[in-house]
Amino acid sequence: MLAERRHQLILRALRSGGPAAVTALSEQLGVSPATIRRDLVKLEEDGLLTRVHGGAVAEEGDQPFAEVAEVRVPAKDAIAERAAALVQDGQSVLLDIGTTAYRLARRLHGRRLTVITSNLVVYEELADDEGIELVLLGGMLRREYRSLVGFLTEDNLRQLHADWLFLGTSGVRPGGQVMDTTVVEVPVKRAMIKAGGKVVLLADAAKFPGTGMAKVCGPEDLDVVVTDAPVDAVTRSALQEAGVEVLVANEVTA
């Protein structure tokens, strides 16, 4: 098998299934562990993945929305269900970009709410629901990821306040720092945090530690983390020391 083809298959495996061990990739592709290790070094040099102990995790910053939407759907649905239960009718909700926020939006139908978002997929999901007051933030379009970014988005957020912010992430470091792989999204996320009354981080198990080179915020900026699996002891301790409540959702079938 040509190296280029192996690289494509490795990235596809990591993006669809999350972090993977060298041994698992070796068996899946039918090549030696040494070959996989060389491939991982090359892909890391290209900025497409991050090597971790015994394996690797993909960098997901600019994956198309449609591709990311097919990954870990049951976990995202479980998180969305638990997060939606936090919201009461009559409240205002700020939804970040990302596929978990979209899964959450699907659970807001029929509610009497105000929803504010820069996520075009969320907007399209809720546009015909007459019970929801829908506010679409302005900004520059990121076509592949279906989001709006830039100074116009940030300026809009400075004029708004929401009872709840549901925030997405690329990774959560052991110290509780929230990270993102896409630098252009970070100022918008920070503006959302300032506009949110209660800040809820939506993070499936693959986000601990996940990926990301840009820091969005520290644990002190969060109120709640909703995840689908127990958080490792070091990260949980950091979150608890900052007063963050960790809610573990029961996984549902898709």
From the structure above, extract its key features.
254 residues, alpha/beta, Arc Repressor Mutant, subunit A, Rossmann fold, seven-stranded parallel beta sheet, 15 strands
Plain-language structure description:
By secondary structure, this protein is an alpha/beta fold. It folds into two domains: 3-61, Winged helix-like DNA-binding domain superfamily/Winged helix DNA-binding domain (Arc Repressor Mutant, subunit A, Orthogonal Bundle); 68-248, Rossmann fold (3-Layer(aba) Sandwich), CATH 3.40.50. Helix content is 37%, strand content 24%. It has helices at 3-17, 22-29, 33-45, 65-68, 73-84, 99-105, 120-126, 151-158, 186-195, 233-241, and strands at residues 20-21, 49-52, 55-58, 92-95, 113-117, 132-136, 140-142, 147-149, 162-167, 171-172, 178-180, 196-202, 214-217, 224-227, 245-248. The strands form four sheets. A seven-stranded parallel β-sheet has the order 6-5-4-9-12-14-15, sandwiched between helices. It has a three-stranded antiparallel β-sheet with strand order 1-3-2. The chain has a three-stranded antiparallel β-sheet with strand order 10-11-13, covered by helices on one side. Helix 2 (22-29) packs across helix 3, helix 5 packs across helix 6 and helix 8 packs parallel to helix 9. The protein is globular, with a radius of gyration of 18 Å.
Order of helices and strands: HEHHEEHHEHEHEEEHEEEHEEEHE
User: What is the CATH fold-level name of the largest domain?
Assistant: Rossmann fold
Helical fraction equals 25-40%
Q: Treating each run of at least 4 consecutive H or I residues as one helix, how many helices?
A: 10
Q: Assign the CATH architecture of the largest domain.
A: 3-Layer(aba) Sandwich
| Largest sheet strand order | 6-5-4-9-12-14-15
Terminal-residue CA separation: 34 Å
* Mean pLDDT across residues: 88
Biggest beta sheet attributes: 7 strands, parallel
**Number of folding domains?**
2
What would the principal axes of the Cα set say about the shape? globular
> Helix- and strand-based class?
alpha/beta
Structural Rg: 18 Å
Low-confidence blocks of residues: none
- Would you report the number of β strands? 15
Strand content: 15-25%
CATH top level of the largest domain is Alpha Beta
